[in-house]
Design a protein that fits this description.
The protein contains 11 helices and 9 strands. Helix 1 crosses helix 5, helix 1 packs across helix 11 and helix 5 crosses helix 6. The longest helix is centred in the last third of the chain and has 20 residues. The chain is globular and about 55 Å long. Bound molecules: phosphoric acid mono(formamide)ester (CP).
C-alpha cells in the first residue's frame, strides 16, 4: 500500500504504470453507461473516505464514481462537518479513519495537513489538491495529451498565467515525464522557488508559445487567494489571456488545456475553450480514469 502525495515523490516508472493502466481501464469501459460496474471489481469490499476542506465538482464526483465503478463504497466528508474542523488533531483523525476505511483522499489547504494525514494514517492517502500541488489533475492532463498526441516526452508545454499549485504539479511532471515546460506570466506571480530548474521563464507570451505542443492556463484567482487580490491579479494577468491571437502563435496542432473551473473570457476566451485546440472536457473525463488507476496503485489491487 502506497500514498499518492505528489508527482515528484512518485517514481517515473510508477507514474507511467498509472497512466498506462488508466488508458487500459478507459478502453475497457468504452461506450458503456457511466453507472455500469467494471468487469474487474477490484475495490469490492473497500471503503474510501473523500475529505473536502475546499469546494470541488470534478474531484468529488470523479473519485466517487470511480470507486463505485470498481465495486467499492465511498463516504464524502466535509472538513467543517468533522471534528477535524473543531480542534481534533489531524494525527488523531488519521488514526481513527484508518480503523474504518481502506483509503483516504483529502483536499485541504496546507500541505502540512496532507503530510500529517499520510504520516499517521495506516491506509494510503491521496492528495486531492493542496495550496501547493494538484497531482491528480496533472496525471489526467498527461493522460489526455498522450491520448491525442502520443508520448509527451520531449514535447513543449507552455503555462500562461499564475504560477499556482496546478503549475507546480506540471513542473514536477515535466521532470518525471521528461517534457519541456515554459512559464509565461508576471514576475510577482512566479512559481515558488522550490520549482526552480524544472521549467524556463519567458515573460513575453507571444514568444513563449512559439513551437508549443500544449498551452495551459488556470483561473487567475485560486481558491486559497484572497478575493481582495482579484482586481490586482486581473491587471497583472490580462496580457497572458489565452485567446485566438496567442494560440495562433503555437503549433498548428497544439492542444489547449484548463483544469476547470474556468472564468470564461478572463484567463481564456470561450472561442479557445470551445474551439478545435481545446481538450478541456477530455481532461475532466480523464480525472475519473487516472484516479481509478491511482487508487489501484495505492492499494496494490
Ligand atoms: N480541477 C479540479 O480539481 O476541479 P474541482 O475543483 O471541481 O474538483
Amino acid at each position: 500500500m502506497t500514498d499518492f502525495l505528489d508527482i515528484h515523490t512518485t517514481s517515473p516508472a510508477d507514474l507511467r504504470k498509472i497512466i498506462d493502466d488508466a488508458q487500459a481501464m478507459k478502453q475497457a469501459r468504452a461506450d458503456r453507461p457511466k453507472g455500469t460496474p467494471d468487469d474487474d471489481q477490484v475495490l469490492a469490499g473497500h471503503m474510501v473516505a473523500l475529505i473536502f476542506e475546499k469546494p470541488s465538482t470534478r474531484t468529488r464526483v470523479s473519485f466517487d464514481v470511480g470507486v463505485r465503478q470498481m465495486g467499492g463504497q465511498t463516504m464524502v466528508l466535509s472538513g467543517t462537518d468533522m471534528q477535524l474542523g473543531h480542534g481534533e488533531t489531524i494525527a488523531d483523525t488519521a488514526r481513527v479513519l484508518s480503523r474504518y476505511v481502506d483509503l483516504i483522499m483529502i483536499r485541504t489547504f496546507e500541505e502540512a495537513t496532507l503530510l500529517e494525514m499520510a504520516e499517521y494514517a495506516t491506509v494510503p492517502v491521496i492528495n486531492g489538491l493542496t495550496n501547493r500541488t494538484h497531482p491528480c489533475q496533472i496525471m489526467a492532463d498527461v493522460m489526455t495529451f498522450e491520448e491525442f498526441r502520443g508520448p509527451i516526452k520531449g514535447k513543449k508545454v507552455v503555462w500562461s498565467g499564475d504560477g499556482n499549485n496546478v503549475f507546480a504539479s506540471f513542473a514536477h511532471a515535466a521532470k518525471q515525464f521528461e517534457f519541456d515546460l515554459t512559464f509565461t506570466g508576471p514576475e510577482p506571480l512566479d512559481p515558488e522557488r522550490s520549482l526552480d530548474g524544472l521549467y524556463t521563464i519567458e515573460r513575453n507570451p507571444d514568444k513563449a508559445v512559439e513551437g508549443a505542443d500544449l498551452v495551459v492556463t488556470d483561473t487567475w484567482v485560486s481558491m486559497h487567494d484572497p478575493q481582495s487580490a482579484r482586481e490586482r491579479r486581473h491587471n497583472q494577468l490580462r496580457g497572458y489571456q489565452v485567446n485566438a491571437d496567442l494560440m495562433a502563435k503555437a503549433k498548428d496542432d497544439s492542444l489547449f488545456m484548463h483544469c476547470l473551473p474556468a472564468h470564461r473570457d478572463d484567463e481564456a476566451t470561450s472561442e479557445i475553450m470551445d474551439g478545435p485546440h481545446s481538450v478541456i472536457f477530455d481532461e475532466a473525463e480523464n480525472r475519473l480514469h487516472a484516479q481509478k488507476a491511482i487508487m489501484r496503485w495505492c492499494l496494490g489491487v
